[in-house]
Design a protein that fits this description.
The protein has 4 helices and 8 strands. With about 170 residues, it is α+β, with helices and mostly antiparallel strands. The protein has a 4-stranded antiparallel β-sheet. A 4-stranded mixed β-sheet has the order 5-7-8-6. A hairpin with a 3-residue loop joins strand 2 and strand 3. Helix 1 packs antiparallel against helix 2. The radius of gyration is 22 Å and the shape is elongated.
């Protein structure tokens, strides 16, 4: 079992906090220039603070760990002391692993689910897979060694399933 935990960008956290505070302050300053619209400016400032807290919670306090096993891939989410597996797929269900540039070129894009740790990751990959009847594009932020292991695992699993199909075809002559 191989694990990959993306590193949270400290700059990102500072950016979210500073931009939230600045936007809220600008909105509060609007009450000084136009007291008749105080309630609207306070509401706008509250919305900025609420959005800032949500973004901070999602991209700073929430940690993702990618888990690669012999025949599966899972994403675990941890917030504080609580943790849970939020996505689990078999490697045989993976159609393709591609980069962000390759994903943009895809014609029939599946539903995208982001498991990125950072707002703008240095490296991201998409795992195109099928879970049940639906296709998904899992957006992850792996490091180079983990991505190589993931690609190797997907290739190995595809070859194994192709060999099983050949054996089934031989038996049904």
């Amino acid at each position: 079992m191989k694990l990959c935990k993306p590193i949270i960008s400290a700059k990102q956290s500072v950016f979210v906090v500073v931009s939230t505070v600045l936007l809220a302050l600008v909105s509060y300053l609007g009450t000084l220039y136009n007291p008749a619209y105080t309630k609207i400016f306070v509401l706008i400032a509250s919305v900025f603070v609420f959005i800032g807290v949500l973004v901070l919670y999602r991209y700073t306090f929430t940690e993702f760990v990618y888990v690669l096993s012999e025949d599966g891939f899972a994403v675990r989410r941890k917030v504080g002391e609580k943790g849970a597996t939020v996505m689990e797929i078999e490697l045989s269900a993976v159609e393709k692993v591609c980069t962000a540039a390759e994903y943009k070129k895809l014609e029939n894009k599946p539903k995208k689910i982001s498991y990125n740790q950072n707002l703008s990751p240095l490296m991201e990959a998409y795992i195109i897979c099928k879970k049940g009847e639906k296709r998904y594009a899992l957006r992850i932020e792996p490091n180079e060694p983990f991505l190589a292991l993931l690609l190797e695992g997907v290739d190995r699993n595809k070859k194994g399933s192709e060999e099983q199909n050949k054996e089934k075809d031989k038996g049904t002559v």
